[in-house]
Amino acid sequence: MADSHIVRHLSERKSVPAVEWPTLFLLVGCHLIWLMIGVFLYPVLPNVSLILLGICIAFHSSLQHEVLHGHPFRNERLNELLVFLPIGLFYPYRSYRDTHLQHHTDERLTDPYDDPESYYRTLGDWLNLPRAFQFLLTINNTLIGRMLLGPPLNVIGFTISEWRLIAAGDKQKRTAWILHFIGLVPVGLAIHFLFAMPIWFYALTVGYLGLALVAIRSYCEHQWSEDPDGRTIIVERSLLAPLFLYNNLHIVHHKLPWVPWYRLPELYETTREEWQRVNGGYVFPSYLAILRAYALKPKEQVAHPVLHREVLLDRAVIPQALEKLESQIS
Prior knowledge:
Layout: H1 3-12, H2 21-41, H3 46-68, H4 76-82, H5 93-103, H6 123-128, H7 131-140, H8 143-148, H9 150-167, H10 171-194, H11 199-218, E1 234-235, H12 250-255, H13 264-270, H14 272-278, E2 283-284, H15 287-294, H16 319-329
């Protein structure tokens, strides 16, 4: 993309409105619709309600993502209050915020150690995994696998990592989880008493579905490329784009993360060819195209193709097996 184009939008950063009303409207609407579905629709149409509630969870995740990037207010604490209620149950907002902002260091995108949202493993870590877990992670690199296995694998792995940090004395993580549990109290009371739904059932149906929908967006939104800009996807059009607040145009968001969601489509369409040159043509026409290509086929190997290629083994690995793995990854 032309440098002048980026500079123009950099200059616009200071001119964002004090209140982004479309985002505020969606934040209020998401919580109200979630509540109304659970209270009024669930007793009448339970199966339909579970699906709609799952969609609400996915949309709430998109709104949390918008909030952590400084929307709709310029006040960070006020923004946090808007997503304080963890209706998705599993992830503390502050932990998500901190890890995601770290992820936005584009020079380290996909790094198994430095990018907390990377799905790659180092070659050494991969070779030291039990074969059963290697199999799970390989299936997880298909789109269907990411939707089915991704939610429990991510939640369990994330929670273990967070609690290890807390045990090591990380006060920020401890505060994040304390606030999360405080927010879970009114959410849990609403689910139990207003929805008349067991919380465990909500977690395994609504919560699971919400994470599965989010997995569609995150499945291949980043890949390795020598050029950091080539690591971020463009999915041009999809019925799911509004659900993801147009983060299907992910390179636009990564280059201009302060731009609100409702401006992303226009920014992409007005300089479409330039954006595609920026990310090296890492473009899909739709999520349906991704489904057709990778529903049951891993998009790539789990081991990172370039970074941290040194192999540190806890057990002997015969040279033939190592050569076979190298040929699979290359």
